[in-house]
Amino acid sequence: MTIIGYIILGLGIILTIAWCLNIREKVKKEQAREKAMELSGFLMTISIFLVFVLHMSPFHLLWMIPASYFLGLMSMMTPLRILWLFSSIYFYIWYIGVSNAGRKFYIDGEYEKAIQAYEEDILKTSSPELYFNLALAYGKVRQHKKEIWAYQQSIKLDPKKPQSYYNLGNAFSDFGDKLNAIVSFNEAIRLKPDYLKAHYFICKTYAEIGDKENALKALEIVKKLDSLSAEELVPLINPL
Predict the structure, then answer these.
(1) Number of domains comprising the chain
(2) Are residues 120 and 222 both part of a single domain?
(3) What's the pLDDT tens digit per position in 113-161?
(4) The model's pTM
(5) Is 124 exposed, middle or buried (0-12, 13-18, 19+ CB in 10 A)?
(6) Domain final residue pick, 41, 71, 94
(7) Same domain, 72 and 112
(8) Half-sphere exposure of 213 (CA within 13 A, CB side)
(9) I want to staple 172 with a disulfide (CB 3.0 to 4.6 A). Which of 131, 151, 181, 233 is the partner?
(10) How far apart are alpha carbons 203 and 169 in whole angstroms?
């Protein structure tokens, strides 16, 4: 094997491990299984093993790893979804230590039990992920005041996560506090300028409070990011 081959193999292994660790973190924070991403990670891992088992050239990874990514995406809309069974079994290894009572109850739709489990966990130790997940559960049972509080606690512990501000904005909006919703959406945008959902909902919120000028400014940004989303907002800003 040439030096370049070793470099490609090493980069392939690092990329695969980083990909799988990223999925683990997403599952821990977002309360959902990333099925398509799991399949990509599974196929990337298989690609690495094939290089060793079949004594293939590492140069094959230059097409095998990108192909794994696209096959994962395609699985959401094609019969390739059947491969999720195998990737899910594989990712149980990566999720060791992630599963907990609160997350299990949340995924099963038992939100009251999830809240109780997360509240008990927070008494033992606090983390931005725990408060974030608790806020998600509060939102599911429409306890918006508590939901807002939990997101605020998560933000205190991790003020750099744009999704927390975005979710807080939605919680404020559901609670009827549109002005604080706008403040939160703006903070999410400050941290992630191309955050489409935050731009979309700040535009929608401006329209709901009758601030047409700012709604139109926000609409122009949404147009640049996604024209279809912008079309959905036009009737809200300029009703017939």
Answers:
(1) 2
(2) yes
(3) 999 999 998 888 888 888 999 999 999 999 999 999 999 999 999 999 9
(4) 0.68
(5) exposed
(6) 94
(7) no
(8) 0
(9) 181
(10) 12
